[in-house]
Amino acid sequence: MTRSTHTNLAVLAGIGVLLSGAVWMTSSAVPRATAAPPAENLTIQQWLSGREALQIELNNTLVETQQLTAPSSQATTICQKLARVSQQLLHGRRSPHPHLDTAANAGITQFTKAAQACLAGDLSLTRRQIDDGTTLRADAQDALDQLLHGDHGGR
Length: 155
What we know:
6 helices
């Protein structure tokens, strides 16, 4: 055998060892396919984006509503805005993921009730309903985060 033949055989043997190692590693450690968390799903991202402007409007309107001190034409306008945005969030496009609607809409019913109380001139009840809705939303935030990130807490 010539020197180049020995070199070629050595290279082939090295490649064979590398390939057999790669086959051994991949055959014994086949990775399991995992589904991407819902937050990475384009349809869910679009659904969340579609709600974003309403969520911001809701938050701003809640602040305005909490600052009301007496019934007035300005108060009526703010109360009507709270009623409208709450209804749009509650009855808007459904989520493409099971259970996401429930977590995303937590507290919205209380905000609708707050708007009704506000329109009736009962600012004390309005504030209580807003506080209740805000508490429900805060409590639901962990569940929403878990749903979006695919962590079901062992469920």
